[in-house]
Amino acid sequence: MKPFLSNIKLHSIVIFAVSFLLYANTLGHEYTQDDAIVIYDNMYTQQGLQGIPGLLTKDTFFGFFKKEGKAKLVSGGRYRPLTPVMFAVEWQLFGKKPWVGHLLNVLFFGLLCMMIYSLNHALFKPILNDKTAVFSLVAALLFAAHPIHTEVVANIKGRDEIMSMIGAVGAFIFVLKYIDKVKMSSLLIAFVLFFLGLMSKENTITYLAVIGLGVWMFRTKNRGKLLMPMMALLGATAVFLLIRTSVLGFDFGATSTELMNNPYLKWNGNKYIPFSGAEKMATIAFTLGIYLKLLVLPHPLIHDYYPRHIDIMSFGDLGVILSILANVVLLVIAIYYFKKKRLISYSIFYYFFCLSIVSNIVFPIGTNMSERFLFMPSLGFCWIIAWLFIQFSPKKQAIVSAILGFFLGFYSFKTVVRNFDWKNDYTLFTTDVKKTTRSAKLLNAAGGALSTEASKMDKGAKRTKMLKEAIEHLTKATEIHPTYKNAFLLRANSQYWLGNYPEAALDYEKALQIDPGYQAAMDNLPLALRDAGRHFGEVEKDYQKALNYLKQAITLNPEDAETNRLLGISYGLRQDHSNAIKYFKKVVDLDPKIAQSYVNVGIAYRNAGDNATSDEWFAKATAIDPNALKQFSQ
Question: What would the mean pLDDT of 532-554 be, rounded to a whole number?
Answer without folding.
Answer: 97
